[in-house]
Amino acid sequence: MYGPYPWRGVLFLEILFLFLSASLSAAHSGNSDLLLAAGSVAVPSINVGSGFPNQLGQVPITVTLSTQGNSVGGLQHTIVFNNNALSLSGCEINPALGPNPEGHDCALNPAAGPCKSLIQLSSQCGTSPQPFGCPEDADSHLSISSAMVAAVNTPNLMTIPEGVVYTCTFVVTDLLALPTTLQNTRLVASEPAGHQLCSWLGSPCEGTDGVIALPPTPTATPTLTATPTTTPSATSTNTATATATPSDTAAATATPSPTASPAATATSTDTPTATSTATPTATSTATPTATSTATASATPTSSPTPTRTPACLGDCNGDGQVTVDEILMMVNIALGNSSVLDCVPGDQSGNGTITVDEILLAVNKAMSGCLSL
Description:
16% of the residues lie in helices and 21% in strands. By secondary structure, it is α+β, with helices and mostly antiparallel strands. Among the domains are: 45-212, Immunoglobulin-like; 324-368, no CATH class. The chain starts with 6 loop residues before the first helix and ends in a 5-residue tail after the last helix.
């Protein structure tokens, strides 16, 4: 094939092998980079702040959002706190995100700003049934503040910027119970179109707890004052010194007394006595004859037909929970950007569309649970 130069064939095969090896290596490196990039995708972070009480015992606590590069259209979470140490006075949305940003009316111009609403609900735990959002084993000394921020009153697709989302004011009722933790739980964040970015039901969001503590005690700084010092003059004084003369003293020496040796005591030893043991005699035992017993046939029992549970309003994916991404999905259907088939449980009236009253009813389910009225 290669005429008088067979080595050319070997060289060609070697070059081909090196080329294929380099190509596979580059492809593998590229896939690794893609996998690294996919694994490093950050999720939004919802953070609860910390603070100290003022002279009136009030502590403003901010809830902030770090988007981590995501487009966030809505969020929700729950703060669990010790009601023996704190009471919740109220919560307010950041005015720049609310229904009247910079004096504009979102009802007239939904694009005037983020135009979001804050829906907040407080409950004391430890009752029966346990309020929705409380830890399962929580007793009555714990309370919760559940909050959602989304475009529910004025449907729109505006995003929530980074920074302060809303502020809650807590009042300290027992200084001895400080410091106390504001536990940040049940976090959910969604894109404006209703795509879930993170959730406590699936891929978790990032977030931090808050702490309310006593203010640090100020430390007094000492002031140095220069004090004049009088230096005395040295005066020479002749002092007579008495010298003691040693005298010879006889020292008594103690002579040790001999120690008596203990006397040996004789010990008696018991000698074991042989005991005869009787050998049992084998006794024959009659074996009973097996008797067959008729077994009654089981009568089949008809199983009751399961009753279908009606869908929870706003529970688009049917998992028994309504979350902010499903609320925003309903918002998009109300705006005409999505089909009602994307969230059939959100169309309570069955008229083929979703209206703001149905969105608000679904928000109630998100805050209080699907079993709420």
